[in-house]
Request: fold
Amino acid sequence: MKAVLRPTTENDAPEVVSFLTPLLQRESLRPDLLRWKLWAPRDDYAEPRSYVLERNGRIIAHAGIWPTTVRTVAGTVRGCHLFDWAADARALGAGVAIVQRICEMFDFIYAIGGAQITQKIIPAIGFKQAGDAWSGARPLRPLRQALSHQYKDWRMPARLVRNAMWSVIPTGMRPEGWEIQEGLDGGDGRSLSLDNLRSSGFLKYLQSCPTAQIRVFEIRKDDHNAGRFALSLLHNQVRIAGLWLNNPSPENLCVGYALAQQVARTMSDAFEITSTGSTPESERAAVAAGFRIRKHTPIYLLSFKTGPLPAAFDFQMADTDAVFQSAGEPCYWT
Reply:
């Protein structure tokens, strides 16, 4: 019988969990996290975010959708990142089939890094490498980091000295006139008019994540809206979920990364801070603000229908499940 693609609802949770349990990490299947990822309402996206491929009433593949919207010269286009993507090994081609079917709903699908087996599979499906994403990190509380998490071996004293020196390097000058206020509107009713389509609805959804403490901050320059950043605290690691500026100049990006670190240092449970981006400008700004680049990972695109993505579009953690997943290893603990 031909396989049928259908969206799932929360009523399908037992069957979805049963199918995914042998294939995914247990943390990904926490009931509250699974509901939030796949079925919790989102003001910015009302369509289904979980699909299964079934044959004879049996699930043979599943994929969760993490949607995004990008403004290009050709207009506004929709894309998505797939997570909790898994297929029954006995159903040959089911994993590829569900990706191809979901691709018909969007202008493009993107993947950033992933397990080695994933990076081997997706080029065969038709994904093309479209750039690289950088990942950077910086210690915030090196002693607590060392005592709580670092590997205990003969190199530990040297790591501690290195991280202690690194943690006190200035984040760069903070120009006059820059302020940060927590909240989606700075607490005074003034809203942002960003051109990056990361809406307040999306940020409100992020803040409801059950496994990570996610906080959103408005950046103001000379009493005008300049942008936002969001921080995700998970397992003593602060992740810059996103830094979105009205004017993402190198100087402004550097200030944004410095302001994010300033807030992260006030979080008593934060031992290190990490960030991700995909443009040379954001990478240089992060380095100037004290981050060290630990790795680059490929960005793959599938079936982009309206031309290339704008060069200034910066893929960040909030564009994937990296913003909340527990699998992210500490960056500079070894």
Summary: The CA atoms of residues 69 and 198 lie 8 Å apart. Residues 250-264 form the longest helix (15 residues).
